[in-house]
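Section 3.1 - Work completed
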Amino acid sequence: MRELIEQYKRGELSRQEMEKGIRAYWQSLEESDEQYRDFEGEAMWAYIMRHNKRQSHQRLYWIRYVTAAAAVLLFIAGGYYYFEHGKTDSSVHQAVNRQDIPPGHEGAVLTLSNGQQIVLDSANNGALATDGSIRVVKENGAIRYEGANGTVVYNDIQTALGRTWRVNLPDGSKAWLNAGSSIHYPLSFTGTERVVTISGECYFEVKHNTRMPFRVKLPSDAIVEDVGTAFNIKAYSGEPFSTTTVVEGEVLVRQGYQQVSLKSNEQAQINQSGALTNSAVNYLDETIAWKENRFRFRNAGLKQIFKETARWYDMEVQFQEEVPDTYTVSMSRDVPLSKLLQFIEQSGGVHFKIEGKQVIVTR
């Protein structure tokens, strides 16, 4: 795609040939990427329309539209951003060249029942410890357990900002922890229910068992009970509400005397006063983007975008001016912060400066 752009700029391709090349490239994406194509199309169009609105008093050459479209297409194919030479704002270069913040990565701290802590980031694969008669094993970026105890003991896993982790629970269920999250769970499930406690954000794929329901306790004392397969819970302290979103199957959400049943593409919210409401989810892919190691925002304000991304980059954001614009972003989380800021700044209406672990936002 980049060679296609260069050929057009050198005059070796006509406008019609360039259009045909872009259309062919777009259609060549695999069917499995259809959802990404739709999303990236929105991002491309939002970019073009923002430039058109902000520069309507100037003549907009067609090459700028091609470059905007190609930047998004290149991003889908390989996470590469193409910005036309000489058209990148100098403040973007200043932010990139002076300082940067790397992306987060897999890592967590495991706390055994005796209080011993193990930093999983640096631990090698294999047996890490024995908790009672149960072996704790690290394998391919996750924790699993071997054996059984006569008594029930609990472990905790906590991810710092800029860290994620996956846990294979004793019953075969799986839990993914986003940055700044924790899970408290037994090393073996006994009795009539399986109960874990979380804070932050966790995605669950539950091994269903009607005779022993799987229940998740939230900091608000709400309980989410699995009746299906996969769901996401977001319950960070300090947030105005917690959310439970069903990806597949069905769950029950209880808060005091209130209860709602949710199916796929539905979400429940509990606000700080304990009120429970539910609604349909317009864009499920945005909710679970973090689990797929991506950022996805549709027409989102910067404060919302930075609330999510700040946990991943372990940074603080200072708004020196209000920025009323909204932005559509979809990109891998494996890029340094400067790349995210570049993408947003190229969309217009905002400038960034990185100072240590802080991002300064101005118009």
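Second construct:
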Amino acid sequence: MTSYLDFPERGMSVDVYRPAHGGDCTNGGASSTHDKLWVITADAPVPENAPYPIFRAVSHGPGLCRLVPVEMDNGGWPMFGGNFANCSDGRVCRLFQDLTGFPQFYGAVAIHDRQE
């Protein structure tokens, strides 16, 4: 059983964290213009009326996870644009713990919303 079973299927909001110098390396990605994103799990259906841009939380190799815009689900090569996401809700932390495999994951997750 996964520990994020209490993560709502409709998703949850996370905060966007940007570099203090104010530069944007996302090439127009959603995290460059929004302070919050809506996160869903990799297998969840895309909600119709999310309050923020929708991103999937996906595993990105051993010990890693990332957030990818749902519009990149069917192609494209999402890249890290310099911004991170996190929130204080324990359900989001448990989701990241399961995706990384770290039982005590603590930190922010890279937002991969840059596309060239």
